[in-house]
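During the second year of the project, the team shifted from modelling isolated chains to modelling whole assemblies. The rationale, set out in the original proposal, was that interfaces cannot be judged from single-chain predictions alone. As a representative example for this report, we include one of the complexes processed in the last quarter. Its constituent sequences, exactly as entered into the pipeline, are reproduced here:
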Amino acid sequence: MPALLVKNLVKVFNGLRAVDGISFEVKEGELFGLLGPNGAGKTTTLNMLATLIRPTSGKAFVAGFDVFKEKDKVRKSIGMVFQEPALDNYLTGRENLEFHGMMYGLSRREAKERVKEALKIVELENFADKLVQTYSGGMKRRLEIARALVHQPKVLFLDEPTLGLDAQTRRRIWEYIKRLNKEKGVTIILTTHYMEEADFLADRVAIIDFGKIVALDTPSNLKNLLGGDVISIEVDNPQNAKKIFEKLPWVKKMSQENGIFYLHVERGEEKIPLLIRIDEKEAGFQIKSINLRKPTLEDVFLHFTGKTIREREASQEERFREKAKRHRR
Amino acid sequence: MEINFTAIYILWLREMKRFLRSWSRMVSMLIMPLFFLVFLGFGFKGAFFPGVGYTKDYIHFLVPGVIGMTLISTSTIAGLSVLWDREFGFLKEIMVAPVSRLSIALGRIVGGMTTSIIQAILILVISIGMGFSFLNLPSLFLTIIIMILISSGFIGLGLILASIMRDIQGFGLITQLVIMPLVFLSGAIFPLTNLPVFLRYISYLNPLTYGVEGLRRALVGFSFLPFWLDFLVLCVFSLFTIILGSYLFEKSEL
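Output from the structure prediction step:
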């Protein structure tokens, strides 16, 4: 039995297909990433899987339970860390966790024990009896991860677990997530719009764009798909440059973005000298900057959607604004 | 939909801890009723106007009214505080827990009722310090029952309003456009017999009228309306708002 089985899941909000027929499967013990820009439908997907919103159509099973018909069983089997903090600021960290445990049917004594253990995992024992309102953003996130573990869920959902955290705290949270998955065998599904996060953490990544899954594989397979390195090259005259680049036999694939060309090549370090040797006068353009990159998931995203993730976020906003305008009329 | 008593207890306990930790919140909730009690109580001391003469003096007329006022504001706000949980995200944590929405609504009602009645009793104690005296101990028992009915009814109303409003904008509007008019049209501050007939009829549609009447009968032994009517209306009102409020809460998505 897979930990998660999703078939043709759809959610329509005001006529907008926020999630547009996605299907995927997650094996038990897997760390699965949903990667995509804000507004791509990741959080909506997670909320549907957590039974918080009702899917418009499709099927989904979490730990073998139907999200339509067996809500309580689904809720018992999952832990959830939301994008924004969902803590009671007027309670202490420990109280937040103990209450949580008891809401999930643990006895007071069981709850106390498990909370102690969970607090140890995220190294918050020393702050446990302080009010949550005194916590930093990173501490809150750690506390929430601990809370999601108290009732020992089979599946853990993390919605943008490191959003808004500084680099150092992010690293630390990554370590916890990795350890939880490896040592405790918890199946983890996380959403993120940070490429490096998906790359570092996930066993498999689904790239999601406009509510659809556009690619799904291990990060290394996805990157290999692009076939080699990417040279990004900025020029003063894109039209002329395009003609030249198109004729280069060793360019396997090319895309263009705001006057920057992305050339997909093998052994990129050896191709840079060739590019520099192009005669400026004859070709009719000048190279302004040049950069070599081994492929990242960002490139994979660009490859599948034709946009960088940041541009996509801008256009998503546009899309929602348009929709809202039309809706108002 | 089964009722989960542990969940209700946990939500009640949470409410108690929050209540005991935020004195400022309690003071700000009690300040208005206290002003009414102190300024009107002393200001109109010995004043006589039609309808008041049935009670010993104005303060004995006023105290049940101010207690009613305390109950309506603290209870409505307790029901509305779902909006705060939504605003600060905590509602999601509760909604994703494996307990029925009904249990969650009941937990909030029981928690809000406790804090609201504690505050009403505080007002009663202060007014005793100002020279108020209630009938006897059984009357105090009866008072608590009326308090429970008023409080649960208005928490239910708060839940209903919360599901209509969706966010905390307009929160102040509720207190000014709902709570204050209901207080003035309930006979809490002055006898309704002094109002023009048109307004008096409106006041009969106001559930708080029956609450204040019930409290006055229980505490000082006088009311314009028969006690059974107060009791009946309060029961119907509180059942209605609690059922509708819980239902709307259950229906609500994030």
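The CA atoms of residues 275 and 287 of chain A lie 9 Å apart. Chain A touches chain B at residues 47, 50-54, 72-73, 75-76, 78, 80, 82, 84-91, 95, 99-100, 102-105, 131, 147 (CB under 8 Å).
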